[in-house]
């Protein structure tokens, strides 16, 4: 279960169009974070995504030590980039794991706010007059960048994790009911997977060799 | 088992330093492919990586239809980007899945050659005087790009797949011997995994519910 895919690039400067045929936003030395929200994204993980963007150590300081946007401190440009959710099938990308547009727009604006709050909580970041810039959701992200090496990195962030107490003799259906009770969902909509195996309700956990501490993937039908 | 991680960005133009403090290479409208080789990369998959780069459909034509570098046709810039192999641990990236430097350098130069051969085999691509440019392995990739929307995509390519004929009553150890015979390796070095499960030699395939058509991950110890 993934909540977001982010590509990071370092830049010396960047210029992004924020209004079709209109105004631009610019940053100086800093980090560009291209973001796509995936199906398991929720409000609960937005703060985690913002924290990752602001604290990931990718910016070289004068001693070639890597620092984050917040402790470097430097500028940050957030670019909405739906297409990062793409999976290559043959020669084309498919986008089945992306959050629908309306939800993604709302997540995006809250992510920007969350990064803003996070950065402004740092006296170091504020003291250097650093800048947070961001693209406009839904328009073409016309972007120019100058780098001293883009130092490109990719991150796929996971969604929420729940820890469930159960017995080896419990059936998969029982586990689903326990998950439903903890997450406030309908157990019949839950699909439990591990790699390509979809677990069947009437089989016990021990028959599937589902042991303590094992991570399963959870989807909703 | 992954062989390479690639980030694609579309550009209107790009300029890359290819000699420290020295000359640059430029491309016009085209595709930038940032490439990192991962541990399972081998000569056999290099051709597949080159084909993916040259034929992936990411370039908009005048009717907003997506076309590849080879059939658009347009320029291609290959950028060695070791750091794409990074996995985020806490606030830092770790690079344990990257191919060692000497092997990566050799893979990189053969990838460039393979892309060159692939593109030159197309009369369409040749007829438009399109350009294949590439960065110098091991130096800082000082890059400037102008985009009409970078349209960033990420691909992680898998390594070689082998198909093995076996019986449900075969033990995992027997399957390893069959794989070893087909791949010319020592069966005792083979580790078979699926998600977090490492399959034990003395257990039968049916006990692990390993069925026909199921994909397992293979590692060498």
UniProtKB/TrEMBL annotation, chains A, B:
<dbReference type="InterPro" id="IPR039732">
    <property type="entry name" value="Hub1/Ubl5"/>
</dbReference>
<protein>
    <recommendedName>
        <fullName>Ubiquitin-like protein 5</fullName>
        <ecNumber>3.1.1.96</ecNumber>
    </recommendedName>
</protein>
<keyword id="KW-0833">Ubl conjugation pathway</keyword>
<dbReference type="GO" id="GO:0005737">
    <property type="term" value="C:cytoplasm"/>
</dbReference>
<dbReference type="GO" id="GO:0051499">
    <property type="term" value="F:D-aminoacyl-tRNA deacylase activity"/>
</dbReference>
<dbReference type="Pfam" id="PF02580">
    <property type="entry name" value="Tyr_Deacylase"/>
</dbReference>
<dbReference type="InterPro" id="IPR029071">
    <property type="entry name" value="Ubiquitin-like_domsf"/>
</dbReference>
<dbReference type="InterPro" id="IPR003732">
    <property type="entry name" value="Daa-tRNA_deacyls_DTD"/>
</dbReference>
<dbReference type="InterPro" id="IPR023509">
    <property type="entry name" value="DTD-like_sf"/>
</dbReference>
């Amino acid at each position: 279960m993934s909540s977001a895919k982010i590509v990071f690039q370092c830049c010396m400067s960047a210029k992004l169009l924020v209004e079709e045929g209109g105004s631009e936003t610019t940053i100086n030395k800093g980090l560009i974070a291209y973001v796509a929200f995936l199906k398991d994204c929720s409000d609960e993980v937005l703060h985690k995504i913002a924290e990752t963007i602001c604290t990931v150590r990718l910016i070289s300081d004068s001693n070639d030590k890597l620092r984050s946007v917040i402790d470097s401190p430097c500028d940050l440009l957030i670019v909405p980039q739906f297409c990062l959710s793409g999976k290559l099938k043959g020669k084309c990308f498919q986008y089945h794991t992306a959050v629908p547009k309306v939800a993604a727009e709302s997540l995006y604006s809250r992510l920007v706010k969350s990064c803003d709050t996070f950065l402004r909580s740092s006296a170091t970041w504020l003291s250097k007059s650093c800048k947070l810039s961001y693209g406009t959701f839904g328009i073409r992200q016309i972007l120019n960048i100058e780098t001293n090496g883009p130092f490109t990195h990719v991150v796929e962030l996971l969604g929420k994790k729940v820890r469930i107490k159960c017995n080896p003799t419990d059936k998969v259906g029982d586990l689903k009911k326990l998950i439903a009770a903890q997450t406030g969902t309908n157990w019949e909509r839950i699909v439990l997977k591990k790699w390509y195996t979809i677990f069947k309700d009437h089989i016990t956990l021990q028959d599937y060799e589902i042991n303590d501490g094992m991570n399963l993937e959870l989807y909703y039908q």
